[in-house]
Amino acid sequence: MISTFYLPGRVCGTKAIKEIAAKSEEKYTMICLKPEIKWVYLGQERMIQVLEMSGATMVYADHFAKIGDTVTQAPVIDYQIGALRDDFDFGAVMLWDTEKLKAIVAQMDTEYEFAGLYDLRLRAEKLEHIPEYLYYEVETDTRKSGEKLFDYVDPRNRQVQIEMEQCVTAHLKRMGAYLKPGEYKELPQAEDYPVTASVIIPCKNRARTIADAVHSALNQKVRAPYSFNVIVVDDNSTDGTAEIIQTISNDLKQHQTTSNLVYIAQDPTWHAIGGNWNVAIHDPRCGKYAIQLDSDDTYFDETTVQKFIDAFESGNYGMVIGTYQLTNMSGEILPPGVIDHREWTDDNGRNNALRINGLGAPRGFYVPLLRTINYPTTKYGEDYAVGLRISRDYPIGRIYDVVYNCRRWEDNSDANCDIVAMNRNNWYKDRLRTWELLARLK
Questions:
Q1: 9 partner at 20 to 30 Å CA-CA among 42, 137, 230, 240?
Q2: Rounded to whole angstroms, how far apart are CA atoms 11 and 116?
C-alpha cells in the first residue's frame, strides 16, 4: 500500500523527485528524510487515515526526536500559504497521495540541482499537519537554535540559495503574487525634522550591554549640514539599565552644553520591541531617518550613521539595510563572519524576501513613511513585518560595507530557543508572509 523512498535531507534535485514518482507503484508514497524512523503503534495507518479523510496531497505529523538516549517531543506547525521558507520543518516523514504526486511531478518543468523537493511541495495543493506524535526520528543536527540561525546566509550555501530563489520566484508568478522590478509608489513628502537621523535603541534589562550600545551611537561622526541624535527607549527595566542610561546622560550634561541623547521611559503597559520603536519614531525629537541599534550590539565604527544618511540621500529609498558581522562579546569574529545579504537584488529582492527569514541589519527607515506603517507590537519578527510591507511598494537600498557588530551571547533572544518558542516564531513569520501574499494578490 505504501512505496517508501529515502532522501538525504531537504536539498535534493528534481531528478530524484521524478525518479520517486516514476518508481512509486502503490497508492501512497512515503518520503523519508532520515534513515532511522521508528513508528508508534499504528502510526503509518493513522497517516493514511488522515490523508484519506482530509483529501490532502501530503500529510506530515508531530514526532519524537531521539538524541543519544534522550527522547523529546518534536511538534511541527501547520502549513499556510505564507510558509514559503525553504527550510520549513515537516519532520522526517511525508506521506503523499501517489496519484496527486505523479500529477504534480508531471508539471515540474525546471531541472533543479538542489530545489527539487522545494519545488514539489510549493506546487502541492494541500499539505495537512497531523498534531499527533506518530514516529521517532534520530536527530543529527544538535546545534542550538542560535547556531543554526545563519545557515542560509553562509557563503558555502550560495548556489543552493540561488536555486531556492529561482524556485520561489516561479511559484509567485504561478500564483499571481510576483512583483515586477521597478514598479514603486512615490514616497511621502518629508516635513521639517529636528535632526537628520536618529539612532533608535529599544532596551529592557540590558545592564550588561546598554552602555556599549549607547556610547557606540554617541560616538558617531556626521558631516555638516547633517546632524543626529540617539533615542533610547527603556521598557521598564528592573536590572539597573535605566540608572546606567541616566549616568551617561548626566555625564554628557556635565561636559557639554547640549546633549543629543534622548531618554524615553515607557509606561507599564505592553510594548515589546515593536511598540518601543513606535514610541521613538512618533516622538517629535525623531529625525528624518531612523537607524537601528539593538541594545546588545554596537556600530562597526564612527561612520555608520553617515553611511546611512548618504545612502538615503542618494536614492528614494523607503528603507536602507546595512551589512553586519557576527562577533562574541570580546569582538572576536564568529562564523560565518560577515553577513551582507547579497541574495538581495534590486530586481527580485522583494520577491525573494518572502522566502528568507530576514532582510538583514542594521535597518534604517525613512521616517515619514514608517509613521504611516508602524511596527507590530511584538518582540519577534517586528522588523521582518515592516521590511516586507515596505518592499511591496517602495525601493530598499543596501550598504555592503560592514557597519554593525551583531554580538552573540547567551542572552540573545534567539540564542537557544526550545521547540515551542521556535515553532511560535516560525509560525508568526509564516503568518506575516501569508498576510503579505494576500495583499500582493490583490
A1: 42
A2: 7
DSSP string across 299-342: ESSTTHHHHHHHHHHHS--SEEEEEEEEE-TTS-EEEEEEE--T
Pairing mode of beta strands 197-203, 228-234:
parallel
Query: What is the Cα–Cα distance from 391 to 351, expressed in whole angstroms?
Result: 9
Half-sphere exposure of 401 (CA within 13 A, CB side): 12
Dist CA 195 CA 235 (whole Å): 24
Q: Look up residue 218 and give its three cell numbers.
A: 554617541
Are the beta carbons of 55 and 126 closer than 8 angstroms? Answer: yes
d(CA 190, CA 183): 21
Pairing of strands 2-6, 28-32: parallel
- Half-sphere exposure at residue 101, Cβ-oriented, CA atoms within 13 angstroms: 26
Whether the bond between 376 and the residue before it is cis, its omega within 30 degrees of 0, is no
Whether residue 403 contacts residue 193, with contact meaning beta carbons closer than 8 Å, is answered with no
CB-based contact 153:341 (threshold 8 Å): yes
DSSP label of 10: S
Quote the CA–CA distance of 411 and 337 in Å, as a whole number: 20
Separation between Cα atoms, residue 78 and residue 430, nearest integer Å: 10
Q: Which residue has the cell 514526532?
A: 63
Please answer whether residues 229 and 263 qualify as being in contact, where contact means their C-beta atoms are separated by less than 8 angstroms.
Answer: no
Among residues 391, 395, 392, which one has the least CA distance to residue 440? 392
Q: What is the pLDDT of residue 154?
A: 60
Query: What pLDDT digit, counting tens, does each position of 356-392 carry?
Result: 999 999 999 999 999 999 999 999 999 999 999 999 9
Q: How many CB atoms lie within 10 A of CB 252?
A: 15
Q: Which tens digit of pLDDT belongs to each residue from 238-256? A: 999 999 999 999 999 888 7
CB 232 within 8 A of CB 264: yes
Nearest Cα residue to 78 out of 423, 355, 422, 385: 423
CA–CA distance, 382 with 376 (Å, rounded to integer): 6
